[in-house]
Each structure stands twice: as C-alpha cells, then as structure tokens.
Amino acid sequence: MADKMLAAFVKAPFQFQVREVPVPEVRDDWALIKVKACGICGTDLHAARTEAKGWQPFGHEIAGVVARAGKHVSNVKEGDKVALESASFCSHCDLCRNGRVDLCNKAPNFWHNATTGFAEYILAPKECLVPFEGLDFEVACLAEPLGVSVDMVYTAGIGLGNEVLVVGLGPIGLMAIPLARMQGASRIYAANRSGGKRVQVAQQYGADEVYVTSRQPLGKISFRKGGVDRALVSAVPQTLPDVMQVMNVGGIISFIGIEYGPGAAIRFDANEFHFKKLQLRASFASPALYFPLCLQLLKDGHVDGRAVISHVMPLERIAEAMQLLRDDRENTLKIVIIS
Fold first, then answer.
1. 52, 135, 251, 304: which could join 140 in a potential S-S bond, CB 3.0 to 4.6 Å?
2. What is the pLDDT of residues 61-120, one digit of tens each?
3. In this structure, are 114 and 33 located in the same domain?
C-alpha cells in the first residue's frame, strides 16, 4: 500500500482542492477503509458556501473496503465491505441504558479526522463500521441518507390510510416516498419548487401526484381530503407555515431542514396550530441509525438506489461535481464520488 493518497478539501466561498496527503496510520479500535464511494450531501453545499473558514476535509456518505483493521477491531476484518455510520451511540450513558440510543452521539466518529469521505482512504472507529454484501458501493453509500429518510418517516408516525405530503424532492424526500407507502400511506402527494428529474423520480417512486410549487403553491392544491394527515418536509424552514395550512385536523409534520441567518426563523399562526391539533416534530438522524435496515431495503429493491443517483464522478472532479449540484438542480440529484 502506498503511503500517500489523494484527498479533497473545501473552503468557503466554494473553493476546493484535491491534494496528496499521507495515508492515515491505523490506531487501536479503528480501521483503515479504502473509500470506494461517497455521496455529496446538502450539508456539503452549506459548508462550501458559508461554513468552512479554512481548508477542511468533507464527505460523510461512505462505503468502502476494510484495508487494515486495528487492534481490538473484531466486528469486521480486512477485505470486508462496509458502510460507515456518520455518528453512533456509546451504549454506556444513561440515555443508552434507558433505551434512548437515538439521543446519544457520544461514540467515537470520524468528523475530526485530517481526511474524511472525499479521499482515497479514511480512518474510522469500529463503532461506525457496518458490513454488507450484495450491493454496489455507489448504492451502498446511500445507506446514510436513506437512514435520514427512515427517521423522517418514523418521526411522522404514518399509519394505514394516511394521506401524505412530501415536500422537498432531494434524495432524502424522494426515498421517503416508497417508505411512506410501505408504512401504509393510501395516497402520496409530492411537491418541489423546481421540476425536471426530481418530478420524474418522484413519479417513478410511486407518488400519486407531483406538484412544482413555483407554478402551483401548496395552498392552491386540491387535496382529496381537503388536506393531508402527515407531511414529510425536507426543505427550508420558510416552507413550514404553508405546510401547516394544508394539514388536516390532528396532522403531524416531520421536519428536517437546515438554514442559517434570518431564514432560520419562521412565523406561523399559533391559534391555527392549536385548534387544528397539529404536531411539528423534528427529525434529526444523528446518531445515524437503521443502517442494516437501509442496506437491506436497497438490496431487496424496496428503495431503488440507482434512481436517485444522477452522476458518478471521480474524486479529481469534486469541484465540478459540487458546482453541478449547486447550479443544475433540475437535472442533478445524488452525485456519488468514486475513488
């Protein structure tokens, strides 16, 4: 194995470098992973626009092969295919022991590494290594965003016969469509500000009706029951007041959306919220749970991972890939970087 590798770094505003750096040395309880595929996430775009003050590594939707296993790593061995949880629970704290592993983020993770997913190798703690078989690496790396979709769907509490609105048709919102159907949704409406490939994939995934809100706002849609029972929102916070207006009495909104600055604050009619008995629930999939389930859903074809992958590009073209995702939203969904 060579002692040097390529790794990508980001610095705001929208600057990228791919440079040669040392291959990380294996540590006790950690494994060296040969990265085969890493998806670009919306949070990578946020970092590129505003967050990365100096040159920083990035990439966290990772699938690869164990190249070297450190001392005490017993859950995987060299040569195993693995998907990497982006965060995990410690199993020792009071929250974990009381059965709320979903509230613990205390396990070791790779976020503070010198290099992360957009590199030829990554050093990862044993706690985040999930072995798999029977999937291409490009699809297996979707286990991380699919886990976010699963958390959003579970948070909404979808039941048999519920009519569901999915707002925001990025990969997370799109993959939530077949999940909502599996939970028992009788009718699924999908909405996105722009059209193009996102509308096509929503239809492919089984949405009954798809709307482009720049042409037809949510408030102008005629829902079969007057409104919807559940909403899955993976869009900016400013979307929420409009979603609240189309909820049926007793409706539940599951929300995952990140914004910075003034756009992070919203205003809504508290009386309407109260008298309609609505619930707004935050979905924040950290720790990154459900990886075995997500890998199985992808393997069995219940969620067609290939449908959301619009581009597969090499590490050397990471700057081009990031610009494409920023500038061509109608034709670009999930971009997977391979190395």
1. 135
2. 999 999 999 999 999 999 999 999 999 999 999 999 999 999 999 999 999 999 999 999
3. yes
Cα–Cα distance, 26 to 67 (Å, whole number): 10
pLDDT of residue 14: 94
Looking at the chain, the whole-number percentage of residues with pLDDT higher than 90 is 94
pLDDT band for position 52 (cuts 50, 70, 90): confident
- Three-class secondary structure assignment of the chain: CCCEEEEEEEECCCEEEEEEEECCCCCCCEEEEEEEEEECCHHHHHHHHHHCCCCEECCCEEEEEEEEECCCCCCCCCCCEEEECCCCCCCCCHHHHCCCHHHCCCCCCCCCCCCCCCECEEEEEHHHEEECCCCCHHHHCCHHHHHHHHHHHHHHCCCCCCEEEEECCCHHHHHHHHHHHHHCCCEEEEEECCCCHHHHHHHHCCCCEEEECCCCCHHHCCCCCCCEEEEEECCCHHHHHHHHHCEEEEEEEEECCCCCHHHHCCCCCHHHHHHCCCEEEECCCCCCCCHHHHHHHHHHCCCCHHHHEEEEEEHHHHHHHHHHHHHCCCCCCEEEEEC
Q: Are residues 60 and 99 located together in one domain of the fold?
A: yes
152 within 8 A of 284, measured Cβ to Cβ: no
Question: 178 lies in which domain range?
Answer: 149-282
Query: How many angstroms separate the CA atoms of 331 and 197, rounded?
Result: 5
Q: Is residue 162 part of a domain?
A: yes
Tell me if 242 sits within 8 A of 231, measured CB to CB: no
pTM: 0.96
> Contact at 8 Å (CB) between 176 and 152?
yes
Mean pLDDT of 319-324: 98
